[in-house]
Amino acid sequence: QTLHKLLHKFTEEYGTIMKFRAGNNWLVVVSDPKYSEQVLRFPDKYPFRPSIGVLDAYYERKKLSPGLSSL
C-alpha cells in the first residue's frame, strides 16, 4: 500500500488532522486544503519544522529545491 493510500485511509477513519509517531518524531498530517493553507501561511505557536536529513541529502545530491519541506 502506498503512503498516499494509507494516509487517505487514515483520513477517512480519523479525520482531516492527525498526529502520529514516525520513528523518533511526531508528525502532524493536515489533509484538508483549507487547513493546510492556514498552517503554511500563518504559523502559530510552533512554526519550527525540523529538516529531515535523508531528504536534505537527496535534494542536495539531485540539486533540487526542497520546496515546502524547508518551511
Q: What this model shows, in words?
A:
The structure is a single chain. The protein has 71 residues and is α+β, with helices and mostly antiparallel strands. It has helices spanning 3-14, 33-41, 53-62, and strands at residues 17-22, 25-30. The protein has a two-stranded antiparallel sheet with strand order 1-2. The longest helix has 12 residues, at 3-14. It is globular, with a radius of gyration of 14 Å.
Radius of gyration: 14 Å
Give the termini distance in whole angstroms: 28 Å
Spatial strand sequence of the major β-sheet: 1-2
- Which regions contain 5 or more consecutive residues with pLDDT less than 50? none
Describe the global form. Answer: globular
Please bin the fraction of helical residues: 40-55%
Beta-strand residue percentage: 15-25%
Oligomer: single chain
What profile does the largest beta sheet have? 2 strands, antiparallel
Order of helices and strands: HEEHH
Per DSSP E runs of 2 or more residues, the count of β-strands stands at 2
Task: Count helical runs.
Answer: 3
pLDDT averaged residue by residue = 80
Q: Structural class of the helices, strands and pairings?
A: alpha+beta
Summed up:
By secondary structure, the chain is α+β, with helices and mostly antiparallel strands.
What attributes characterize this protein structure?
71 residues; alpha+beta
